[in-house]
Amino acid sequence: MNEGEVVGLVGESGCGKSTLGRVGCGLYAPSDGAVRYRGQPVETADGARRPIQMIFQDPFASLNPRMRVGEIVGEAPRVHGLVASGEVEDYVARLLQRVGLDAGFVRRYPHQFSGGQRARVGIARALAVKPELLICDEAVAALDVSIQAQVLNLFLDLRDEFGLTYLFISHDLGVVRHLSNRVVVMYLGRVVEIAATEELFAAPNHPYTQALLAEVPRIDRRRRTFVPIKGEIRRRSHRPPAATSIRAARMRCRAAHPRRLCCAKSRRAASLPAT
Ligand SMILES: Nc1ncnc2c1ncn2[C@@H]1O[C@H](COP(=O)(O)OP(=O)(O)O)[C@@H](O)[C@H]1O
Ligand SMILES: [Mg+2]
């Protein structure tokens, strides 16, 4: 990921988006390979302060119900010594205001908030440790559409204000298109395509991306034909049958391992020839 960009990570449910996000911020250890942040392994990046923070789908499940919001947001910066203990209260109040909450809410518990407000508390908690990269895992999926838009706009405002970089995980292609500079498409635990957002939506390369974009629900289309991806998926643990629906690509796939991502200008898609 490049500094300051918003990368959207899409793919169907169960393809491994959350796992990738959790590996990325050091919550899970990778079974293979390495995760580096500014050249450093993620576990040790920048010592005590974690520059990578995660925002979860369900803020109700990820906020401790027995803690008041003041503690939830203020705990990490206090423990990591980012703010002096006498100043934590002011610090939390400022953060709450920044994410659009009343500073007087510090004494409330998570259940005393609406869904949108809880999402904002989750964002304030992540911002409290002055992160550089936010990994948002379906961060707005649980919210009403009108509240979603507000929270998405908050994300964009915060990016400008704090110079944040985002990995935005979502199954909602509309949200990803609206927010992202680049899109990464996952399929059965593998990245199959990476491209600039407009290029990807204009001309998807990989058959799975094509199928994903074709299935976006549209209000103006009543009668739709469903085109399944052709080919057999063997075992889930087996490597995905990349490019099964394009005969020519399939021939090339035999020669190249699907893990190899090949470049076409700024684009990469699995299993295309390295010519
Ligand atoms: N690269 C991978 N290889 C094998 N299994 C994986 C891989 N990535 C994720 N999984 C497994 O797939 C399941 C769903 O993953 P998850 O990350 O929750 O998907 P998503 O967030 O896209 O719905 C989990 O049980 C996870 O352990
Ligand atoms: Mg998930």
Can you offer a commentary on this structure?
The protein is 35% helix and 16% strand. It is an alpha/beta fold. The strands form two sheets. Strands 4-5-6-1-7-8-10-9 form an eight-stranded mixed β-sheet, with helices on both faces. Strands 2-3 form a two-stranded antiparallel sheet. α3 (69-79) runs parallel beside α5 (115-127). The model has no long low-confidence stretch (mean pLDDT 83). The structure holds adenosine-5'-diphosphate and magnesium ion (MG). The site of adenosine-5'-diphosphate (ADP) has 9 residues, from α1.
Question: What's the structural blueprint in terms of helices and strands?
Answer:
Blueprint: E1 6-10, H1 17-24, E2 36-37, E3 40-41, E4 52-55, H2 59-62, H3 69-79, H4 88-98, H5 115-127, E5 133-137, H6 145-162, E6 165-169, H7 173-179, E7 182-187, E8 190-196, H8 197-202, H9 207-214, H10 247-255, E9 261-264, E10 267-270
Parallel strand pairs: 1-6, 1-7, 4-5, 5-6
Antiparallel strand pairs: 2-3, 7-8, 8-10, 9-10
Bound molecules: adenosine-5'-diphosphate and magnesium ion.
Adenosine-5'-diphosphate binds at residues 11, 13-19, 189.
